[in-house]
């Protein structure tokens, strides 16, 4: 009969922290001091990608500042333009009355020039116009009153040739050829009187009468 095996009970060995390293804790500290430094002090977390981000932010900021400045300048220019237009409008409003007055004066002068041309043309076509004008002028005076009748030289020649009786009717009248008078007009000068029957003066009186009407 065989004998039973001799079994022994095994238990894990307890490790003493102080005995794991020669010298205990002091040995651990010395060993940790001797480990190499794995972190490079010159190492930086800035990467090329970070530089691109910063540059992009700087560009965006510059763009915003430029856009704001451009808008500010545009608003200033627009404000200046608006003020200029307002000043022009005010000046036009102030000068409107003067412009209308000048326009009316120019129209009147043009009408006078046209009327004068028509009168002169009528005088050339109808010689009786001058004789009728002279008759009307001298009828305003006494026949015996010494007066001077001034006519355009051409009108005076026509009057002497075609109406000698009219001159004989007023023996005390002195007939004077005045080149400064237009055809169709006359000027009668007495001792204490003056009748301006020139075309310019007659037309002026007509247009002044129309203006007041």
Automatic annotation (TrEMBL):
One of its GO terms (biological process) is bacterial-type flagellum organization. The keyword Protein transport applies. It holds the Pfam family FliH. Keywords: Bacterial flagellum biogenesis, Bacterial flagellum protein export, Protein transport, Transport. InterPro entries: Flagellar_FliH/T3SS_HrpE, T3SS_Stator/FliH. Residues 1-23 have a biased composition (Polar residues). GO terms for cellular component: cytosol. It comes from the Bacteria. Residues 1-44 are annotated as: Disordered. Residues 84-204 form the Flagellar assembly protein FliH/Type III secretion system HrpE domain. Belongs to the FliH family. Needed for flagellar regrowth and assembly. This is Flagellar assembly protein FliH/Type III secretion system HrpE domain-containing protein.
């Amino acid at each position: 009969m065989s004998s039973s095996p001799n079994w022994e009970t095994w238990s894990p060995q307890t490790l003493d922290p102080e005995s794991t390293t020669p010298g205990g804790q002091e040995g651990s500290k010395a060993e940790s001091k001797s480990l190499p430094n794995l972190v490079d002090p010159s190492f930086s977390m800035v990467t090329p990608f970070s530089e691109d981000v910063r540059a992009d932010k700087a560009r965006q900021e510059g763009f915003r500042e430029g856009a704001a400045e451009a808008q500010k300048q545009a608003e200033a220019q627009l404000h200046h333009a608006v003020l200029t237009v307002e000043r022009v409008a005010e000046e036009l409003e102030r000068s409107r009355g003067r412009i209308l007055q000048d326009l009316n004066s120019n129209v009147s002068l043009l009408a006078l020039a046209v009327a004068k041309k028509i009168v002169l043309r009528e005088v050339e076509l109808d010689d009786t116009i001058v004789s009728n004008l002279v008759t009307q002028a001298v009828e305003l005076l006494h026949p015996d009153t010494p007066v001077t009748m001034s006519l355009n030289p051409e009108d005076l020649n026509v009057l002497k040739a075609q109406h000698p009786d009219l001159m004989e009717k007023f023996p005390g009248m002195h007939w004077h050829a005045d080149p400064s008078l237009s055809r169709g007009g006359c000027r009668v000068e007495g001792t204490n009187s003056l009748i301006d029957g020139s075309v310019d003066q007659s037309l002026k009186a007509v247009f002044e009468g129309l203006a007041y009407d």
